[in-house]
Amino acid sequence: PDIVRIRRFARQQTLRFPVPASATKFASRPSARKSSSSAFDAEVLIAMNHGESPARWVERTLLATRGRPADCRVIELLAPRIIRALDVLDAEPLPERLDRTLRDGLTELGLPCTDAQITGLQHALARPLATRVLRHRLVEWACELCDEHGWRLKLCGRGWGDDPRFARFDGGVLAHGDALGTAYATTAVTLHASMTFLHQRVYECILAGGLPAMLFKPEDLRILLDFGELVAHETALGNASATAPSQIPARVHVDAHPALTTMRTLVEDLGTTSLATNTSETLRPVRDMLATSTVRAEISPDERTMVVPEWIPPADHIRMFDAMRPCLFRTREELGTIIANAIRDPESRQSTNTAVRSLVEQYFTYEQTTRAAIDLVVRSLTSTRA
After folding, report:
1. What is the pLDDT of residue 279?
2. Cβ-Cβ contacts under 8 Å for 236 (sequence gap 6 or more)
3. pLDDT one-digit tens code per residue, 313-340
4. Where are the beta strands (DSSP E) in 127-221?
5. Are 320 and 206 in contact (CB under 8 A)?
6. DSSP three-state, residue 299
7. SS3 at position 43
8. Hey, where are the domains in the chain?
């Protein structure tokens, strides 16, 4: 939105794209169509660029800033607090939790606490460290579950063999392309944990024929709620009189669009305890993008003319959430259930992959994104000449 609001770029000449994956490089392998669990090369795969632990990352960051004592003091104070802030994944969104941790730490150090400084620390310290905390927690869960159930685990990437806790699971480095795609296809479940929700590695796993299991965090509901607001706005515009745009209804009932009904079901299913307490009447989203809305029985179709248009229709984003629901976990126990189900029922695993892959192939590949970008440029040039 900032490209329109702040930089004053013409809204009609903008289009938001996700970071795509290569459908050619990660085309579905025949080996992905497993008819029995014995055909899997491993039950669980975690493929990361490196296995650097949170503690090692802090050491490396301190070493890189050793010539700046003030920066070292900030890192030494904040890093342990950031790690502790992620001890429990409860209802509070992680960005807000990290923001509060940073502000409290800077205040304690007597340092200025401007929004710009907080943003800088989020990108340079909090988010990279938090990502490693989440990923290593996922690795610990996977190790425990595989030991308990006798499942085979492969940790692929640099550095896993150097950690005594994980060396026995070291699967080496997988080249980005055929080797990685084959590993996705021949493993029951590939695990993902990140500060973001859907990302390129998830799309690649789906395209190759794998089943990603993704850590679902409280703030991931924001994305779903935002798309619900956009669907409500489009629905309200469609129902309003073309000659009387001021008659756009203030609220849109969830029954007015199938995607809104799906969204409400997902919110009720994935919402945390504190969110669920609001669902008896209305559920207020955890973030206001441009204005507030409610998402239980009615949704406010607020004015969204400043929002950068999405190439992917918001209703299809909600469909993507719904198709991914069997892949989402919030706890160690839910992760264990996903793995067990994929092993016990390969056909269901394949059905989930097929449902998600149809949307990934339609919207989240380099090939489709390139076509959409070219179409945008052509339309923009045509309208300019007119």
Report:
1. 33
2. 248, 249, 252, 301
3. 889 999 999 999 999 999 999 999 999 9
4. 153-158, 187-192, 212-215
5. no
6. strand
7. strand
8. 21-216+330-364, 220-319
